[in-house]
């Protein structure tokens, strides 16, 4: 039986530990942003009105200009921005800000699509799903920006 004072002589010097790569504290929030924007893009395939223009599959992408088209374009841009940011080792703060703005644009366009629908139509499932996804993307992008600045978490 060896005591701690004799342990180094018996087994050798303390080996150096391997370097642990630095982990981005905002990675989970950025993944949540990407998932939320993907849900917003998928929601553009849902019917955006009960009848009339936008009541079929891909209701947000109809021929007549409407707020649903603004939400669809903003959701697509947000998804591209968040995917580009996920391929970099450490995402830039500009990507987080752009994702936040895209999420706000999706949410605002959805609110306007609900309050001011196309003439002679009634909003249905699409704007509600896209509104939730846009708000989730906005919150996640803000969370990613805050975590990347080091305001949340314990630093040892």
Can you walk through the features of this model?
The protein has about 160 residues and is mainly α. The protein has a single domain, classed as Four Helix Bundle (Hemerythrin (Met), subunit A), CATH 1.20.120. The protein is about 60% helix and about 0% strand. The chain is built from five helices and no strands. Helix 2 (about 25-45) runs antiparallel to helix 3 (about 65-85), helix 2 packs antiparallel against helix 5 (about 125-150) and helix 4 runs antiparallel to helix 5 (about 125-150). The model is unreliable at about 150-155 (pLDDT under 50).
Structural class: mainly alpha
Inertia-based shape: rod-shaped
Largest sheet: none
The name CATH uses for the topology is: Four Helix Bundle (Hemerythrin (Met), subunit A)
Summarize the structure.
This protein has 156 residues and is mainly alpha-helical.
């Amino acid at each position: 039986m060896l005591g701690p004072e004799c342990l180094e002589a018996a087994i050798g010097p303390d080996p150096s530990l391997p370097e642990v790569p630095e982990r981005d504290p905002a990675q989970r929030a950025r993944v949540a942003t990407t998932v939320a924007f993907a849900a917003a893009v998928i929601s553009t395939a849902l019917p955006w009105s009960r009848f009339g223009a936008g009541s079929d599959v891909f209701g947000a992408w109809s021929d007549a200009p409407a707020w649903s088209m603004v939400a669809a374009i903003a959701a697509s841009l947000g998804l591209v921005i968040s995917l580009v940011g996920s391929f970099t080792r450490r995402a830039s703060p500009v990507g987080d800000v752009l994702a936040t703005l895209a999420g706000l644009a999706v949410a605002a366009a959805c609110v306007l699509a609900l309050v001011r629908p196309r003439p002679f139509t009634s909003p249905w499932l699409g704007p509600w799903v896209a509104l939730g996804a846009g708000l989730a993307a906005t919150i996640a992008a803000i969370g990613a920006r805050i975590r990347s600045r080091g305001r949340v978490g314990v630093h040892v």
